């Protein structure tokens, strides 16, 4: 039955939501509504339809219309209980006729469309550039004329049904509210968020306060004090150290009171610890005026003094890379702050920070993720340009990496060194990529500190409530060039002409407070004078300032120490045989009724047999025993990588799945009720962010064995910045230990250039000052001990493992339980194990190798029945085992010495080991004085992509190594 205008008249009187119900009927069957309404709905554009879709979901929309009255009911339209729309129509037009009703409805829809588009695009007309360099054209969709409103419609009341908190309002009133709310000094992007509750919450917070930042007198004074501290510190440094690089905050000082608000409000909402990461811009100011690093310490560093005690070794770093930690007091409770050290690679500290946050949440048992939070301070050009930002954002909602949201604060000085925004990004805003995780984005004018503090409060409240990332884009400027010695007018003369005459944020705000009678000019000047006196006093004290301790072995690191200098640092890695068998048997079990895959069931049976006999343990079993024993000893284990649950080569199966339900079972989580935590996570297809995350995790938790596994070892090169700038050098630069383990599948097996080499030569080239360990084990037992010694020593070093591929199932690459039980340990050099090897003085050649090529050499030597060629395995390449290798070489005084590798000559270990082996030989009195190279010739590509060529090359290098002329 169609609904006539007469019938609809009565129904409007019964419920203001009838228009929404009528629209619902139209969508279901256009012929079911009167032709007049049919044409009305058909002419609506997409935005109008979206408004009606929202109306259909409103609380006052009727679930269904049960019957239809006739025109006879019309006199009741003006009686008690009539619908708000009809009442509004009668008030405006004098009569709720159908034509008047349709006009009022059209007004409402158009007004709601206008309101909606302001929510979506109001930020495009906002005024958040303090320099006003970009002359924005008014966005046409924000023009009421686009919705059919003309000059004569400005003062006609329109029914809004409490949108904007109003039942009715004139178009003039609506536009005034919308301009103040969405087009002032704050522009907000939130309509891309799909979660209805999150979107509604932000809308209410923005529209409820109309973006009027109502601060108390004390609140305004506090903002001025923080601005004064920020500005005075920069001016003082410029005065005392003119032209010295410091990457000052001038132009972005509002960040300091904003951070203060995030911390203060966050504490009220349960926050107990904050991990910060940031680039150079404003770092010293954050260290001093937010984290609380003493001014005397900073001034001392400017004078060239070290940031650590004299007895602490290390290269150190420039002052605007350094981190620190402190406790801030709020009403008797403390919030711990730590600023993560970082290199000049700007945003690459991002995943490190969120990894640290995750570890600290784990330590606190913060399952709700409200006690520990990360704050990342970004540069605008770097946020848009550095892919690591997007990769880190991509971790935010993943089970193994989520931290309950990060607050991102962009110091948007509208330039990247010398590059203007139109040349450094393709989007409208530098923050556009944050929309990929549906983060709300607040753009705010940096010269309006109250607005900046206001959105900062909203941001921390959003994060604590919804546990999601949130972004603040503070549009500001930099008063000097990229650094204080740079001349910015070379490339941005017009911008810097404006900046030279532009008052500082602190001056603008002080004037505002004087005009508001919050403070007198004399009081404002006194605040500055008092702070400058403090800086002068601290500057004088800095001449005698001396660091009396380093902060790197405190907190969770208490009890650990620096690594001893000797070569042999095995640790106590052996485990009683009974315990090994107990753990091994549990690794082979699944719950009753669990529908395990048949192939995996056979693997578990084979594993169980090897545990029972104590022989033939493969790589995966040795690894699981290393993990299991650590778990029972109280050390947690965290393993991540793109296929780590199963293992890229289907060897690990740490996670097994019921074949009917896909229910997971992880045996390593069910060893003992009191065991430590075992985590294994299949990571996203990101190497850089995930490696950075795990490195950050290892920085915060030295009692967890943290491992990252590459799908293939060469994929680690996409995380090279993390490896170069953090893992290899972090201890030397910043006094930050890490026990992170990198598992990099490596071995030449004819799989082509990209699936052969983990580029061991790169790691070896970076090896110095005992910065890490690099191993290329040939036995499961040695791998087992290498993993366990990470936790069984009183210091931490990163461990790089060239893990095998074909050796995972090689019949000779097995170990016994005895090799892991009492009396066993890690061996940096494995001697020749051939039972019938000729007497040592009769051995004519010693072949030194590392990794998988050993088995090729061993099997070919067996086939040739050679007894006068000895093979030594270099299991640890760095730190180089000089003493152990010298001892083995001394056994063979009459042999020549060959270094054999699979990799091309310019790759692999040759350029690293040749002089070191020579050094060992010089200490033995052997006939040989230098090793000879055997392997593939130099090559640009790591390996050939042709299997036949690979086999030919491999056969030749093996033959060359074993053939004694």
UniProtKB/TrEMBL annotation:
Oxidoreductase in keyword set: yes
Entry EC number(s): 1.2.4.2
Gene Ontology molecular functions: oxoglutarate dehydrogenase (succinyl-transferring) activity
CDD domains: TPP_E1_OGDC_like (cd02016)
Cofactor list: thiamine diphosphate
Enzyme class at the top of the EC tree: oxidoreductase
Family matches, as SUPFAM superfamilies: Thiamin diphosphate-binding fold (THDP-binding) (SSF52518)
Pfam families linked to this entry: 2-oxogl_dehyd_N, E1_dh, OxoGdeHyase_C, Transket_pyr
Domain Transketolase-like pyrimidine-binding: 617-810
InterPro entries in alphabetical order: 2-oxogl_dehyd_N, 2oxoglutarate_DH_E1, DH_E1, KGD_C_sf, ODO-1/KGD_C, THDP-binding, Transketolase-like_Pyr-bd
Superkingdom of origin organism: Bacteria
Keywords: Glycolysis, Oxidoreductase, Thiamine pyrophosphate
Record's keyword annotation contains Oxidoreductase: yes
Subunit relationships: Homodimer. Part of the 2-oxoglutarate dehydrogenase (OGDH) complex composed of E1 (2-oxoglutarate dehydrogenase), E2 (dihydrolipoamide succinyltransferase) and E3 (dihydrolipoamide dehydrogenase); the complex contains multiple copies of the three enzymatic components (E1, E2 and E3).
Family note: Belongs to the alpha-ketoglutarate dehydrogenase family.
Function of the protein: E1 component of the 2-oxoglutarate dehydrogenase (OGDH) complex which catalyzes the decarboxylation of 2-oxoglutarate, the first step in the conversion of 2-oxoglutarate to succinyl-CoA and CO(2).
Protein name: 2-oxoglutarate dehydrogenase E1 component
Organism: Azospirillum oleiclasticum
Lineage of origin: Bacteria, Pseudomonadati, Pseudomonadota, Alphaproteobacteria, Rhodospirillales
